[in-house]
Design a protein that fits this description.
Blueprint (H helix, E strand, L loop, with lengths): L1 E5 L3 H12 L3 E6 L21 E4 L6 H10 L3 E4 L8 H11 L2 E4 L5 H17 L6 E8 L9 H13 L5 E3 L11 E8 L6 E7 L4 E7 L4 H14 L4 E4 H9 L1
Parallel strand pairs: 1-2, 1-3, 3-4, 4-5, 5-11, 6-8, 7-8
Antiparallel strand pairs: 6-9, 9-10
Helix pairs in contact: 1-6, 2-3, 4-5
């Protein structure tokens, strides 16, 4: 299987390392600025022989990259975050061009297991109104979006499974938090690794669930596994489809 890496920053380098360890061939590295790239832009020539492209770039580049890759009939792993208001457009591009595309707010396998733990816990807490719920996440100060895509995914899981929670609040609250609000807060500082906490709090005690990403290897491994999974498929998929196959 031959892959292309779109974006050759820190994540791109880690994806290259993991992919080589798993026996995949790196046919192309596309980056307009990196000296280590094989090409500066996506084209038929630069992606010759590629089966799947893994994109970790910038939200502003997502639509253009997906359009270019889909026109060339390359399947796509979309790891860039912060583009989710354009989900319908990305879906249309993939389906129109009959390519396979898999996306995730977080490709870490551990995080996706964490999502399922939160889902199970939320179902239990739904029946115990004495517990309120909060979410907080930490990231380094170079993180482009806030709250993170992972935090938003966590919040959506809780909103789906806890009937008394109706709305996510991501800004600093200037008033009392209402019972139907789920407060999702963020900290950006220094070199803090990605950390996500979900708390269930009552007058008697607090239950906390936490995931800490030690480095980028977990994200890179999940993205490479997603490339292996999407190879040969057609359609628009979230990582949930891959996880169902993985943990069934």
């Amino acid at each position: 299987m031959n892959i292309a890496i779109i974006g050759y920053g820190k994540m791109g380098h880690e994806i290259e390392r993991i992919a080589r360890e798993r026996g995949l061939s790196i046919k192309a590295i596309i980056d307009p600025k990196s000296e280590g790239a094989t090409a500066k832009e996506i084209s038929e020539r630069s992606l010759k022989g590629v089966d799947v492209a893994i994109d970790f770039t910038h939200p502003s580049m997502v639509i253009g990259n997906v359009q270019s890759l889909a026109r060339l009939k390359k399947n796509i792993v979309l790891g860039t975050t912060g583009w989710y208001d354009k989900t319908d457009e990305v879906r249309r591009i993939a389906e129109k061009n009959k390519v396979g595309l898999i996306w995730a707010s977080n490709f870490s396998i551990g995080v996706n297991v964490f999502f399922r733990i939160i889902e199970s816990a939320s179902m239990m807490i739904n029946n115990i109104p004495e517990y309120d719920i909060f979410c907080h996440e930490f990231h380094h100060n170079q993180k482009a979006d806030s709250p993170s895509g992972t935090a938003r995914s966590i919040a959506n899981i809780i909103l789906k499974n806890v009937e008394r929670k109706k709305e996510m609040i991501t800004e600093t609250s200037r008033e009392k938090i209402r019972p139907e609000h789920l407060h999702v807060t963020s900290t950006r500082a220094g070199s803090i690794p990605g950390t996500h906490i979900v708390g269930f709090d009552s007058a008697a005690d607090t239950i906390e669930l936490k995931h800490i990403a030690r480095d980028r290897s977990g994200f890179a491994l999940g993205a490479v596994m997603a490339a292996e999974w999407i190879n040969g498929k057609k359609g628009f998929f979230s990582i949930d489809s891959m996880m169902k196959d993985l943990i069934r």
